[in-house]
Design a protein that fits this description.
CATH architecture of the largest domain: 2-Layer Sandwich
Shape: elongated
Number of strands: 15
Largest sheet: 6 strands, antiparallel
Number of helices: 6
CATH class of the largest domain: Alpha Beta
Strand content: 25-35%
CATH superfamily of the largest domain: Haem-degrading domain
CATH topology of the largest domain: Beta-Lactamase
Radius of gyration: 27 Å
Helix content: 25-40%
C-alpha cells in the first residue's frame, strides 16, 4: 500500500474515533443553563418594581445561581439587617430543593419538624426557583417586606420578569374608576409583576416642582385644561427624593411649551421638566416607561 493512501486511511480512522468519543462524552453530560449577573439584576429590578407599585415597606432581594451561589443582592431602604442572610438562605433552599420555600414551611407546620435539621435550609416563605425553558437556572429569595406572603409575591414577580411571563391578567378600568382616579390624581396601573410601565391618572391645579427621572420616560397626553411646561435646561436646588428620582424648585433655560387638550408630549428619561403654570384644573395621562 502506498504512503498517501495509508495516510488517508489512518486519517479516516482517527476522524471516526474522535467522532465516537465526542458522541460518548455528549451522552454522558448535560447542557446546563445558569443565571448571569445581568439576569440577576433583571430579577431584582422586577421585584423592586413590584414592591414600589404595591407600597412594600422594604425587603432584601437575593439571587443565586443553579448551584446556590450568590450572584446579586440588593437591600431596599428600611429593611432590617438580618434580611440579607435570610433572603440568601431562601434563594438557596429554593434552588437546592427545587421547590418554593413555602412548601417546606407548610410541611413543617403540618408536623414534620425534623426537616429543620437539614443543613443550609431556610424553610421560610419567600424563595422561589427561577426557571427558563423548564430548567432551573437559579433562585430568588426575598425577606423583610410587609409579610411572608408579600416576600413571596416579590420573589415571584422578580422571577417572572426574567422569564418574560405575563403574570398579571388584562387590566380593565371602567369609566367610574377612571373618573375617581382623576378626581384625586393616582396610579391606574403598572409597575407590578415586573412590568416596565405605569399609567398615572394625573391632576394638577397649580405649578409643581421640577422633576428628573433617571429611568422613566414620561409620555403625557392632555385630557383637559391648559398648562405651561418647561423641558430641558437645568433643574435648580435639586434634591433626591428617592432612588433615581430628583426634584428641584425650577429650571434654568430649557424650552417652554403651552399644553392643551389633545396634546402629547414625550419627555425622555433624564430630562428635567417642570409644570411652571397651570390654568385651572389640568387633567392628563402619564405613561411611564422604563
Amino acid at each position: 500500500m502506498n504512503a498517501p493512501l495509508l495516510y488517508m486511511i489512518n486519517g479516516l480512522i482517527l476522524s471516526i474515533f474522535l467522532a465516537a468519543a465526542a458522541f460518548t462524552v455528549s451522552a454522558q453530560t448535560l447542557d446546563k443553563k445558569s443565571i448571569t449577573l445581568d439576569g440577576a439584576r433583571a430579577v431584582i429590578a422586577g421585584a423592586k418594581a413590584y414592591a414600589k407599585a404595591n407600597n412594600a415597606p422594604g425587603g432584601v432581594i437575593a439571587v443565586v445561581d443553579d448551584g446556590g451561589n450568590l450572584v446579586a443582592l440588593e437591600r431596599l431602604d428600611g429593611t432590617f439587617t438580618a434580611g440579607a442572610n435570610i433572603s440568601v438562605g431562601k434563594a438557596k433552599t429554593a434552588v437546592m430543593f427545587k421547590r418554593p420555600t413555602k412548601f417546606f414551611e407548610d410541611v413543617i407546620k403540618n408536623g414534620r419538624t425534623s426537616m429543620v435539621a437539614l443543613p443550609d435550609f431556610t424553610p421560610l416563605q419567600g424563595g422561589v426557583p427561577i426557571m427558563v425553558d423548564r430548567q432551573i437556572i437559579g433562585g430568588v429569595g426575598v425577606s423583610g417586606a410587609a409579610s411572608a406572603a408579600q416576600d413571596e409575591e416579590l420573589a415571584i414577580a422578580g422571577s417572572a420578569s426574567l422569564n418574560g411571563e405575563k403574570s398579571s391578567p388584562v387590566a380593565f378600568f371602567d369609566s367610574k374608576s377612571v373618573s375617581d382616579a382623576f378626581a384625586k390624581g393616582s396610579v391606574l396601573s403598572g409597575g407590578a409583576n415586573g412590568q416596565n410601565y405605569m399609567v398615572h391618572a394625573s391632576r394638577r391645579e397649580k405649578a409643581g416642582l421640577a422633576e428628573v427621572h433617571d429611568l422613566d420616560t414620561d409620555i403625557i397626553y392632555v385630557l383637559d385644561g391648559a398648562a405651561t411646561i418647561v423641558t430641558g435646561g437645568k433643574a435648580t436646588d435639586v434634591k433626591n427624593v428617592e432612588q433615581n428620582e430628583h426634584r428641584g424648585t425650577s429650571i434654568d433655560g430649557g424650552e417652554t411649551r403651552q399644553l392643551k387638550k389633545g396634546d402629547i408630549l414625550i419627555v425622555p428619561n433624564g430630562t428635567p421638566h417642570w409644570f411652571k403654570q397651570v390654568d385651572g384644573t389640568f387633567l392628563y395621562y402619564v405613561v411611564k416607561v422604563r
